[in-house]
Design goal:
Shape: rod-shaped
Order of helices and strands: HHHHHHHHHHHHHHHHHHHHHHHHEE
Strand order of the largest sheet: 1-2
Distance between the termini: 180 Å
Structural class: mainly alpha
Largest sheet: 2 strands, antiparallel
Number of helices: 24
Helix content: over 70%
């Protein structure tokens, strides 16, 4: 039997693309990429430029085009890699050097950008774009130096100004954004600082600097426990982050010392509480909100210890740090009331009531206004030298003593000036006795009501009538001299 032959055709190898074919294909991809780029469809442009590079990976212009597309997409780090590859392939590629410089500048590396633009100007001295970008790079260098100096001087407002100018040229630089955010936090502009840090963390959740700034904002807003969590997370990402380490240590120390002071206060150990709050105030002068609370707490302790002037000073320091701190205004106002500084008390209570119109705050304000009104009248208790709780007998004894002390007859041999002064005091003593010895008038006087409403015109008051009535009528009492400057009392 004859053998059957195998006439099944053998598989053929696919045709291999020649170098020219691949170059043509790459050019087609590039042209399609260009079309999408013109239409501002940068994602599709990126895809076709990538296909061109895959087909012809040694062509500098393809990397240059993809770098331009990545720049439009805001991916400056990726764009930098493509631009650098472009100039590695062709050191005379001007657009490649320009794009590399622009990427360096956008990422905040002004020195590297300067070198790129200088390279372009060596090849094309009249290149207008390179000239402008070189000026921009030098401006960034100048502002960076200014910011460094201003930060050392703690002039954080100027640092923010410098960062704003820099970020016009370097919008993708996280380092400058973080520095701005840190200074905003140090200026107490926490929402702005948090916004900057959060934007960075959305792009890079492991950014230790952004985590530190988030923690710093919370720390300065007196959310210490949450702040510590961010500082710890920042240190996990960057164990050598010195600022996060220091802030974490300060936060823990401040919390511990404040809590010790609070505990001592609750236990009634005011001297210890005062010392602990004082120690806490030395931990971090930059923590404005917590220090405001510490000053107010120490002011409360000072009031308990009867150190009212010190308490007022502490509350004033708290208000300087936080002029919205209602508790500090209330504490200071009470200290002003206790020291009879009623005008100051009224100002503080007015501030509080304007901010929080509660019944309690209205009552405080009315009370202070009444005490201020009363303080501007004659203080009849002081005139008689007695306490406001004096009994009827104490009022009479005080009147007897002061009336005899200031009676005009006793000073008949004195100078006209002394006689006039003593006559005035004698009259005030009579007024005081008239008011304070009458329960109704005393009640009206104590409540701050105007005595003139009852028809009492103190300007027409005759103190001698009170004196005569008190000592038994006309002829019942007289002063007689027993020698120069000496008197004795004679009763009829």
């Amino acid at each position: 039997m004859a053998a059957v032959g195998c006439d099944v055709p053998m598989p053929q190898e696919p045709d291999r693309m020649t170098g020219e074919d691949m170059e043509r294909e790459a050019e087609d991809f590039k042209e399609q990429g260009n079309a999408f780029y013109v239409r501002k469809d940068y994602s599709e442009a990126f895809n076709f430029y990538s296909k061109a590079i895959d087909s012809c990976p040694r062509n500098a212009s393809y990397y240059g085009n993809r770098a331009a597309t990545l720049m439009m997409l805001g991916r400056f780090r990726d764009a930098l890699e493509d631009a650098q590859q472009a100039v590695r392939l062709d050191d005379t590629f001007v657009k490649g050097h320009l794009r590399e410089g622009k990427c360096h500048l956008s990422l905040g590396n002004a020195m590297a950008a300067t070198r790129c633009f200088q390279k372009v100007l060596e090849m094309e001295p009249d290149n207008v774009q390179a000239q402008q970008e070189l000026r921009n790079s030098r401006s960034v260098c100048d502002f960076e130096k200014m910011a460094e100096s201003d930060f050392d001087k703690r002039d954080f407002r100027k640092v923010v100004f410098c960062m704003d100018r820099i970020l016009e040229f370097a919008p993708s630089c996280h380092r400058f954004k973080i520095l701005k955010a840190e200074c905003l936090a140090l200026l107490g502009r926490y929402p702005e600082a948090q916004s900057v840090a959060s934007d960075i963390l959305r792009m890079d959740s492991t950014n230790a600097d952004a985590l530190y700034v988030r923690g710093l904002c919370l720390y300065y807003e007196d959310c210490i426990d949450k702040a510590v969590q961010f500082f710890v997370q920042a240190l996990r990402m960057a164990p050598d982050h010195e600022k996060a380490r220091l802030a974490c240590r300060n936060a823990k120390a401040l919390k511990a010392k404040k809590e010790e002071g609070n505990q001592a206060f609750k236990e009634g150990n005011y001297e210890a509480a005062y010392t602990l709050y004082t120690e806490a105030l030395t931990i971090d002068p930059n923590n404005i909100k917590t220090n405001a609370k510490l000053y107010c707490n120490r002011g409360t302790v000072g009031a308990k210890l009867k150190k009212l002037d010190q308490a007022i000073e502490d509350c004033s320091n708290a208000i300087k740090l936080d002029d919205t701190y209602i508790k500090a205004y209330l504490r200071r106002a009470q200290c002003y009331m206790d020291t009879e500084q009623y005008e100051e008390a009224v100002r503080d209570y007015e501030k509080v009531y304007q901010t929080e119109k509660t019944k309690e705050h209205k009552h405080f304000l009315k009370t202070a206004q009444l005490e201020l009104k009363k303080s501007k009248r004659k203080d009849y208790y002081k005139v008689l030298g007695i306490d406001k709780n004096a009994t009827d007998d104490e009022i009479k004894k005080a009147y007897r003593k002061r009336a005899l002390m200031h009676h005009p007859d006793r000073h008949s041999g004195a100078s006209p000036e002394v006689q006039k002064e003593e006559e005035k005091k004698f009259k005030e003593v009579g007024e005081a006795f008239t008011i304070l010895s009458d329960p109704k008038k005393k009640a009206r006087y104590d409540s701050g009501q105007d005595l003139d409403d009852e028809g009492m015109n103190m300007g027409d008051f005759d103190a001698n009538n009170i004196f005569k009535a008190f000592f038994g009528g006309p002829g019942g009492f007289s002063f007689e001299a027993s020698g120069p400057g000496n008197f004795f009392f004679q009763f009829g």
